[in-house]
Amino acid sequence: MEPHLTIGEVSRRSGVAPSGLRYYESLGLIASERTGGNQRRYRRSVLRRVAFIRTASRVGLTLEQIRDALATLPDGRTPTAQDWSRLSSSWRPLLDARIAELERLRDDLDSCIGCGCLSLERCALQNPGDRASALGPGPRYLEGDTPADAARAEARGGGVGAAARR
Amino acid sequence: MEPHLTIGEVSRRSGVAPSGLRYYESLGLIASERTGGNQRRYRRSVLRRVAFIRTASRVGLTLEQIRDALATLPDGRTPTAQDWSRLSSSWRPLLDARIAELERLRDDLDSCIGCGCLSLERCALQNPGDRASALGPGPRYLEGDTPADAARAEARGGGVGAAARR
DNA sequence: CCTTGACCTCAAGTGCGCTTGAACTTACAG
DNA sequence: CTGTAAGTTCAAGCGCACTTGAGGTCAAGG
Question: Model pTM greater than 0.85?
Answer without folding.
Answer: no
